[in-house]
Amino acid sequence: MEKSFDEQNLLERKVTQLETRFAQLDQLDHDSQHNTQFDAIPELSDLRVENTKLKYRISTGMTSILHSVKQLFGTAIREAYPMLTNAPLLVTKSDHADYQCNSALPLSKYLSAEKRLPPRDVANTLIAHLPPNPLIGDVVVAPQGFINITLNKEFVSNSILNVVTTGVHVKPLSDKQANNRVVIDYSAPNIAKEMHVGHLRSTIIGDAIARLMEFVGMDVLRVNHVGDWGTQFGMLLAHLIEKYPDYKTNTPPIADLQAFYKESKKRFDDEPDFKARAYNTTVRLQAKEAEMITAWKQICEISRKEFREVYNLLGVSQHLIERGESFYHELMVEVVKDLEQKKLLIEDEGRKVMFSTDPSAPPLTIVKSDGGYTYDTSDMATLRQRIHDEKAGRIIYVVDGGQSQHFQLIFNCGTLAGYYDPNTVRVEHLGFGVVLGEDKKKFKTRSGDTIRLRELIREGFERSLAKLIEKGRDKELTPEELKAAQEAVAIGCIKYADLSHDRNHEYVFSFDRMLDDRGNTAVYLLYALTRIRSIIRNANLSQDITEMAKKESKLDLSHAREYKLAKQILRFAEVILQIADDLYLHTLCSYLFELSVVFSEFYDQCYCIEKVMEKGVQKVKVNINRIILCEATARVIETGLSLLGIKSVNKM
């Protein structure tokens, strides 16, 4: 349904008000960073989410050209051959044109013997049935029946102007989503244990997927399924009570929770009496005695403070909500009762187990022989809650690839229990490989310990500053600009190194490689972006570039490099929508790198700013068409980096 004129105006006024508030809060946020890099303004994050959603409602956004071409040829096939069902629709990018339709050959085989035509004739029939559209400029049939498709240059021109005048927004493939509620489970550290490099990939990938889903208009719920319940807490609380008997009135001075955990674990292993007291404390905690809950909350809050510091450093969304094992504890009781009533649990050596439909797979242990619950119980309760209570249309578990079989069992058993219908809800495990050291072994310290994430990030800050100073940036940037560049490079290089790899594969963590300004790295992209922004600044435009673009009726793309760059910019929507489906973020990284390379080719051959002599006087000539192309490129790169969780800077 079209929005009314009044509604459109109302939305646009709301966006203007929000952007005014942004300017105020951005200054406060900037000022707070001079005091501590952990400070943040929650309102700023909340308003950005609201603003994104409003802009999404106002703009139709960039369209996936590949999908649009598929729609056009799908219509042509149905019009030309209505008797065929499930006719093959094969449209891809092409080396010979912009896109290529390869449906003619298989279609000719589908046709009955009396109507069978050569592929070339089928191709011409499809072209004759193409609906009128502004997208396609020309089609040429190859001898084998392949249809080479060239875009309409006017469409490309108008689309680039739209990027600059309305911003970078992507139109979803469907205007009417049956259920756009997406639950994304990621990060999931354990209370009382410090975050380590093992949490890095889940946190970075999950945060980027959540950003991207929100960008395409999904209603995203970010969930941090922390480990905050179980036997180990009886051990921790028993140690806390004995070491700090006044914990009720004085907050225990636990500076290093990891060391505190090791102390309690050593006592648990070495002292039988303490072990017995720890088990008794666990029973009291699970019975929710007020004294135990108070002590448990203190332990949890110490961990949360450390988690927040890491999340703030990494720029992880403040909308990541904590729902630990304790949140699902009562729901686990309900699940066990439900599975028993449905006669899906089987007694096995004192345990209660549930088998999937795969006879070769091990069963889920729902109840242990001592009556306790397991991760299997928790994950069944989690799946049920997210579908029944959260009304999720899609659930994404961002957990390492080693848990693949476990999740397949959970999904299978969830279907058997009636918690999950694959026809109405999309549930998937987004797996990923491990992080390796430069020795190609699991990434650890020299002593063999797991690397703490906070220490790794600190090293990134130190190395990024050293790299900037090595390049003499400290002499060209103000202290504030240098600090902003340091943060962008430090966090950007860590995130991009992870996200630029196929997530199914392991990758080698190397700061030297990450901080290289050559090749597909965050540093290269950040430098490319600041270079483009510098070109635009040097044009010394008399008015805002957006307003100038609004006055242009057409963008001149007569040079081959201009046209190539424009088409590459417009591939952004296609890439984003592909990732929203398959969840492979390295595709976006490859696209951004390719875009920066295409821009370099354009800039080498197409002067944006020239010094010319007119009547003996040297003047500066600015090609506004090319500056608009620069602006569109910059906006797409900035948006892409933002979706990856990487801050961009104007100077570096």
Automatic annotation (TrEMBL):
<keyword id="KW-0067">ATP-binding</keyword>
<dbReference type="InterPro" id="IPR001412">
    <property type="entry name" value="aa-tRNA-synth_I_CS"/>
</dbReference>
<dbReference type="InterPro" id="IPR009080">
    <property type="entry name" value="tRNAsynth_Ia_anticodon-bd"/>
</dbReference>
<keyword id="KW-0436">Ligase</keyword>
<keyword id="KW-0648">Protein biosynthesis</keyword>
<keyword id="KW-0963">Cytoplasm</keyword>
<dbReference type="GO" id="GO:0004814">
    <property type="term" value="F:arginine-tRNA ligase activity"/>
</dbReference>
<dbReference type="InterPro" id="IPR036695">
    <property type="entry name" value="Arg-tRNA-synth_N_sf"/>
</dbReference>
<keyword id="KW-0547">Nucleotide-binding</keyword>
<dbReference type="InterPro" id="IPR001278">
    <property type="entry name" value="Arg-tRNA-ligase"/>
</dbReference>
<dbReference type="Pfam" id="PF03485">
    <property type="entry name" value="Arg_tRNA_synt_N"/>
</dbReference>
<dbReference type="InterPro" id="IPR005148">
    <property type="entry name" value="Arg-tRNA-synth_N"/>
</dbReference>
<dbReference type="GO" id="GO:0005524">
    <property type="term" value="F:ATP binding"/>
</dbReference>
<dbReference type="GO" id="GO:0005829">
    <property type="term" value="C:cytosol"/>
</dbReference>
<feature type="domain" description="DALR anticodon binding">
    <location>
        <begin position="525"/>
        <end position="652"/>
    </location>
</feature>
<dbReference type="GO" id="GO:0017101">
    <property type="term" value="C:aminoacyl-tRNA synthetase multienzyme complex"/>
</dbReference>
<protein>
    <recommendedName>
        <fullName>Probable arginine--tRNA ligase, cytoplasmic</fullName>
        <ecNumber>6.1.1.19</ecNumber>
    </recommendedName>
</protein>
<dbReference type="InterPro" id="IPR008909">
    <property type="entry name" value="DALR_anticod-bd"/>
</dbReference>
<dbReference type="InterPro" id="IPR035684">
    <property type="entry name" value="ArgRS_core"/>
</dbReference>
<keyword id="KW-0030">Aminoacyl-tRNA synthetase</keyword>
<dbReference type="GO" id="GO:0006420">
    <property type="term" value="P:arginyl-tRNA aminoacylation"/>
</dbReference>
<dbReference type="InterPro" id="IPR014729">
    <property type="entry name" value="Rossmann-like_a/b/a_fold"/>
</dbReference>
<comment type="similarity">
    <text>Belongs to the class-I aminoacyl-tRNA synthetase family.</text>
</comment>
<dbReference type="Pfam" id="PF00750">
    <property type="entry name" value="tRNA-synt_1d"/>
</dbReference>
<feature type="domain" description="Arginyl tRNA synthetase N-terminal">
    <location>
        <begin position="67"/>
        <end position="151"/>
    </location>
</feature>
<dbReference type="Pfam" id="PF05746">
    <property type="entry name" value="DALR_1"/>
</dbReference>
